[in-house]
Amino acid sequence: MGRINxxxxxxxxLIAAGExxxxxxxxxxxxxxxxxxxxxxxxxxxxxxGGTTFIRVADNGCGMEFDELPVAILRHATSKIKNAEDLNExxxxxxxxxxxxxxxxxxxxxxxxxxxxxxxxxxxxxxxxEIQSHIASGCSEGTTVIVEDIxxxxxxxxxxxxxxxxxxxxxxxxxxxxxLSRPDISFRYIADGALKYLTQGDGDLQSAVYAILGRDVxxxxxxxxxxxxxxxxxxFISTPEYASAYRTQENFxxxxxxxxxxxxxxxxxQAYASYIPQGKFPFCILNIKIDPSTVDVNVHPAKLEVKFSxxxxxxxxxxxxxxxxxxxxxQRPTLYNEPERVTLEKGKExxxxxxxxxxxxxxxxxxxxxxxxxxSNFGTLKQDNxxxxxxxxxxxxxxxxxxxxxxxxxxxxxxxxxxxxSKASVxxxxxxxxxxEFPAAATEKMDAQETELQKKTVPExxxxxxxxxxxxxxxxxxxxxxxxxxxxxxxxxxxxxxxxLKMSEASSQMLMLPIVVHLSNEELMALHEYGNEIxxxxxxxxxxxxxxxxxxxxxxxxxxxxxxxxxxxxxxxxNREGYAEKARYEFFEKALYQASCKAAIKAGRxxxxxxxxxxCDKVLTLDNIKxxxxxxxxxxxxxxxxxxxxxxxxx
Length: 651
Hints:
Blueprint: H1 9-20, H2 24-37, E1 42-48, E2 54-59, H3 68-72, H4 99-105, E3 108-114, E4 121-127, E5 130-137, E6 142-148, H5 155-158, H6 164-181, E7 186-191, E8 194-198, H7 205-213, H8 215-219, E9 221-228, E10 231-238, E11 250-254, E12 257-259, H9 262-271, E13 284-289, E14 295-296, E15 307-308, H10 311-329, H11 344-354, H12 360-367, E16 380-381, E17 387-388, H13 390-393, H14 423-437, H15 446-455, E18 462-467, E19 471-476, E20 479-484, H16 485-500, E21 508-518, H17 521-529, H18 531-536, E22 540-544, E23 547-554, H19 559-574, H20 584-599, H21 609-621, E24 635-639, H22 640-646
Parallel strand pairs: 1-7, 11-13
Antiparallel strand pairs: 1-2, 2-6, 3-4, 3-6, 4-5, 7-8, 9-10, 10-13, 11-12, 14-15, 16-17, 18-19, 19-20, 20-24, 21-23, 22-23
């Protein structure tokens, strides 16, 4: 081994640059963070050839003085902190003063900056960290950084760059995540001369999602807003049908800083566990606002990973925020993509979002992606694939807007809508249907169910029939539903069993003859550990060595499926899954998934009409009966309007 040498500044700077700058996307990230910290509300990002030859980031922020430009490219030069105490209250994105120094050491860089109100700005040019010129210059207020020929002086690192297309994708991902973190800033992103998107900067996150990710994604989002224990979680999550096979669309922010957090990731996926299939992952944009003194953002060179002083508080904040939004915000999926029907003002808003450039040809091309309802007051696509703007110039006054009804709840306001059941008849019919399927069930089973059905009286609907002994066809006003009877019954059982965990006493049915189930040693240990939770769901049992004698079962479960449901429940409790600190209630809830599946009626079998009607009543009245516990949709809806368009009854 040779002698220990103290490296020169130029060599040390090149090595340090590798911690911050490893590809064009990391350059863009650092420059964007500086632009945001400058107080800018308009930022432009432009790249060429994936950023390998040209990167420009321009902002209208506070700008820098003439003498500050040379200092800005020195290592550990920053305006964000002054002493060690400041590290405890970091709210800025960049703070270590390494970005510009690292970037300038491996590229050719130009800095142009002018402070607000100043008559003259400044221009600095540096190659490989060496200043070539520094002069006064006229320029716009704010700062513009141009980076060219990245790694021109470090060929060993340059050869590891990927194709221009791959580098462009990496830069696009960075700009996207940063833009979504600050909807109050207008971001313009240009790649190889083409404008990719322009956000409005109006503070509306959904507007930013619309501009960056498109209408289809924006329409499939649910708002999240929760504040507890000093932690606020805000943003959007996707509806269950938008789940993908990858985690790349999970976006977490801590005080508007994009981070990778295993804690938040685990909480998000646990919250979705009963809404999407295993192996699928949701889309989210969640900003976690927390006291900066309780989070360490300096544990990763690129500041992507953070450390929390209390991981469980973060987990609970994300989990309950997402779960609450899912329970109250999901809608029933449709089997088609019917054109959106919106008002004239909404149409104008969409046009402003879609057409951020003035070029008429660009407007025409982008307009072809939008389909407008011809019965509403906005533009339509003509036969030559150009957009007719004439309808936007004035509102139609000859006919009133046609009212559309897309959900069952909308019919409550219709004068022609009548109710087929009184509160008394709801109980009577529900009891009859349950007894038909579960003759041993006690009448106490109906207590909680009756209360729920009274909150939302069963609407008048018609069961048309059943396809393949699996899918019930229901007509309700101008909407037709296809209901998966097994998935629906599975979710109903799951929700009822879950509620019992919070009740002091569970409704059960006594068995004339006990059911004997044999368990392994591991299953017996799980039975001992979770005995209280199991009994709360309605199971009563005695232990005799490795045999379990079940003498009481939940009222929701048929006798023929009780042993399978019990065995499955215990088996799922053997291998603890999920986050280590997850509460027993949530973990036990997950174990109920398979138990509910075993207890539900089966597809392909024939069941009495009263029981099928009881399931339909639940689906059409309870808000949480949308997806089965495994994430499969329970019902799809098709509107009369859509069918009439398909059969060309209307245009």
